[in-house]
Design brief:
The complex is a heterodimer of chains A (537) and B (186).
Chain A lengths: L4 H38 L6 H24 L2 H9 L9 H16 L7 E5 L6 E5 L5 E6 H6 L2 H16 L2 H25 L8 H36 L2 H12 L24 H4 L3 H6 L5 H12 L3 H10 L13 E4 L5 E5 L1 H5 L9 E3 L6 E3 L4 H11 L6 E5 L6 E7 L2 E5 L6 E4 L3 H11 L4 H18 L24 E4 L7 E5 L4 E4 L3 H11 L11
Parallel strand pairs in A: 1-3
Antiparallel strand pairs in A: 2-3, 4-5, 4-6, 6-7, 8-9, 9-10, 10-11, 11-14, 12-13, 13-14
Helix pairs in contact in A: 1-2, 1-7, 1-8, 2-7, 4-6, 6-8, 6-9, 7-8, 9-12, 16-18, 17-18
Chain B lengths: L1 H55 L7 H16 L3 H22 L3 H5 L1 H36 L1 H9 L11 H6 L10
Helix pairs in contact in B: 1-2, 1-5, 1-6, 2-3
Classes of the chains: A alpha+beta (537), B mainly alpha (186).
Chain lengths: 537, 186
């Protein structure tokens, strides 16, 4: 027997209340552990300890309070400003509908609280709710979502957000966030100020463990709140299908990753930093994400309506807007430099990501093959357009790792070919000594390159004398030569200069990955040589 | 000593009674306020209808019958005195507007008219608000009734003569039993 929305709301409210109390208790514990740690560190005499504890506890609460006041006092205006959100324009047809639907939501919530409404000028699809200490509350919805939802879907989304405001979720979130940030930064400061000595004390370790626990608790409560707001939205609109459809739509679109900054993610209807983690179900994934998986939320809603997911798909297909061109291509997830899967993106949205490179890993979803961005012909087209800047001459070679055309560049007065994406350099063997010899005259090598070079040399040195474990070592695939496409040899520049380079013995060309040429220059310049240790007989 | 204990128990009971009484009053007021909200939205609908009718009159020459029905239903709804007759008239008006919207679908001229579209949007919103207001009222009534019936509350409710409010029935049921008791409005 599936739970009704009233049951779900009750159950979740109970859970949220209990866990929020537990969370506050946890913060109290952190404060006690933390001050006890400081007291031990400062060698406070035992009889003064209680007074010290009370004093420090009050101070930390005051700091958290001030932080809370500043972060929550004017939150509505802050969020609106940072997202460039505007109040809806009554002359605009779609915005007029939004205003009306907002009024309807006021009616269904019994006019308990005046909720403002904002439109965020972005194509992404998301909605968020904020409330502040001044008593103002607002719901912001992006133009992208607003234009794609029909009336009943819009109602259900706004009801979801309105419940976040009316139930006090928004304010509780900011209380929890300010307490959390105050404590975690204080502990970090103590750790660094005492150069790790205080960290060794058991009470500080306990405090750190509690901070981690509160993080998990925050996540858990945030997820429960989403379930509760979903149930409350159904209570208001009596239309679980509309909300399920809206979530289904959101699950397939760009939710504003990179546009909505990360402080607001708990306020949104779906997490903008959508990672694959959020969509995977399971104990660990559940533990670490702010929002429950959309699939699970939809399942609960569809159970209320007693229809299956295939039925939902069939319905939305029947009503599919003929105006919208059907996307024949599935959407893509991409791995950002922090090694998180983001998405889903359409190709055009991918093109706007600043961190997208030909070597970025992309995939179409869970359990789909993962490949480099250049391997997908449509995504590869992005790079061709990026490359088309005037004044740059293509050298006729392609980058062996990115597979993009190389451009001619000047390096120390000599022509070489360079990749615009990975900064690798292709030079003919005859020219390398010139480049290296001239480099020292014009500019000394930077600290970063020096340390990189040292690390590379000592790493390569130790590897040279170790026999590779038999058959265990994964072979790095040899890069193809940009000219003749035969595999290049991966060799050291010379036995004295242990920088790995790729060389084609047929064409006499050498490929330097990013920084490798500078490292080689630095090596020769500063005479960095591997330390030779004589093995004992 | 015994006297003190009895006094304390009495005081506690009094506090308990006051709390329950206040809770019941606040729910009753919420419920009555929700009822007023329905009225506000109905009034809004009455104000919008003449505008819509005068805007579409020109295009709907051959649909005078439908328009007449809307106008007469509105007049009845506005002038209805008793709650039961009012509920019946409002339901007739809802039906008539539904028919008018269905008819308007067949006139592409109207679909392109910005004024008509705006009015239609306003009326759709009003219809939604009316149904939301009813729904809220019914939810509150259900809540109120539960509060009246659970154990310690029922004693206090009978003591202070709290009466359960009536549900606002949906259209179909209202037609079958127009004698529905809406005694709340005095």
């Amino acid at each position: 027997m599936p739970l009704t929305f009233i049951d779900i709301e009750k159950q979740k409210s109970w859970r949220i209340g209990a866990f929020f109390l537990f969370l506050l208790f946890n913060y109290f514990c952190i404060a006690v552990f933390f001050t006890a740690g400081i007291a031990l560190y400062l060698h406070v005499p035992l009889q003064a300890a209680p007074r010290f504890l009370v004093f420090a506890g009050l101070t930390s609460l005051m700091i958290a309070g001030i932080h809370f006041w500043f972060s929550a006092y004017d939150a509505v205006n802050t969020v609106a400003r940072s997202l460039d959100a505007q109040p809806p324009d009554p002359e605009d047809e779609v915005h007029a509908t939004l205003i009306n639907v907002m009024q309807e939501i006021h009616v269904v919530t019994g006019n308990k609280r005046k909720i403002q409404c904002f439109v965020v000028p972005s194509f992404s699809m998301n909605a968020l709710a904020v409330a502040d200490l001044k008593g103002e509350a607002a719901i912001a919805i992006t133009e992208g979502l607003l234009s794609r939802l029909n009336r009943s879907q819009l109602e259900s989304v706004l009801a979801h957000e309105a419940h976040h405001i009316l139930s006090g979720d928004c304010l509780e979130t900011s209380i929890a966030a300010s307490l959390f940030s105050t404590f975690s930064s204080a502990i970090e400061k103590v750790g660094s100020a005492s150069r790790g000595r205080a960290v060794a004390s058991p009470t500080i370790l306990l405090a750190m463990a509690s901070v981690k626990l509160t993080y998990l608790l925050n996540m858990f409560i945030s997820r429960q709140r989403e379930y509760r707001a979903d149930a409350a939205s159904v209570r208001m609109t009596r239309n679980p299908i509309a909300l399920a459809e809206a979530l289904h739509l959101l699950s397939r679109s760009w939710r504003g990753a990179g546009f909505i900054s990360s402080g607001f993610e708990m306020l949104c209807i779906v997490n903008p930093q959508a990672t694959l983690l959020d969509e995977s179900e399971g104990f660990w994934a559940d533990l670490l994400s702010t929002h429950p998986p959309l699939g699970k939320r939809m399942d609960i809603l569809l159970k209320m309506a007693r229809i299956s997911k295939t039925e939902l798909d069939a319905r939305s297909e029947r009503r599919a807007d003929s105006k919208l061109p059907k996307t024949s291509r599935p959407l893509l997830f991409a791995m950002n430099p922090q090694k998180q899967w983001q998405g889903p993106f359409a190709v055009a949205e991918l093109a706007t990501l600043p961190w997208l490179s030909p070597l970025t890993w992309i995939t179409q979803g869970n359990e789909q093959p993962v490949g480099r961005a250049w391997q997908d012909p449509l995504v590869n087209a992005i790079f061709l357009t990026r490359l088309a800047s005037p004044g740059e001459q293509k050298s006729g070679f392609t980058c062996p790792s990115c597979h993009q055309p190389l451009v001619t560049a000047s390096c120390e007065g000599t022509q070489v070919s360079q990749c615009r994406f990975c900064s690798g350099i292709l030079a003919s063997n005859a020219r390398i000594p010139r480049i290296i010899a001239r480099a020292g005259k014009t500019r000394p090598c930077s600290e970063r390159i020096t340390s990189l070079a040292r690390a590379a040399v000592s790493g390569n040195m130790s590897r040279r004398f170790q026999k590779p474990a038999h058959g265990k070592q994964a072979a790095i695939p040899a890069l193809p030569c940009p000219k003749c496409a035969n595999p290049m040899f991966r060799v050291f520049y010379s036995q004295a200069h242990l920088i790995e380079i790729d060389r084609c013995s047929f064409c006499g060309l050498t490929w330097f990955d990013q920084d490798e040429l500078q490292m080689l220059q630095c090596l020769i310049e500063n005479r960095i040589v591997p330390e030779i240790t004589v093995p004992e007989a | 000593m015994v006297a003190w204990i009895i006094l304390a128990a009495l005081g506690l009971a009094l506090v308990f009674i006051v709390l329950i009484y206040n809770g019941l009053v606040s729910i009753r007021n919420d419920t009555q306020n929700a009822w007023k909200q329905i009225d506000v939205q109905l009034k809004r609908r009455h104000d919008l209808i003449p505008n819509l009718v005068s805007t579409v009159k020109g295009a709907l020459e051959f649909e005078q019958d439908t328009l007449e029905k809307v106008i007469s239903a509105r007049t009845k709804a506005v002038s209805a005195g008793s709650t039961a007759s009012k509920a019946a008239a409002e339901n007739m008006l809802t039906e008539a507007i539904g028919k008018l919207f269905a008819v308007m679908e067949n006139y592409p001229v109207l679909k392109g008219n910005e004024n008509v579209l705006r009015l239609q949007e306003e009326l759709t919103s009003t219809e939604n608000r009316i149904s939301f207001a009813r729904q809220l009222y019914n939810d509150l009534v259900a809540n109120f009734r539960t509060k009246l019936q659970v154990f310690p509350n029922n004693i206090i409710a009978t003591l202070f003569n709290f009466l359960p409010e009536e549900y606002f029935s949906a259209e179909e049921e209202a037609k079958v039993t127009p004698s529905v008791n809406l005694s709340l409005r005095k």
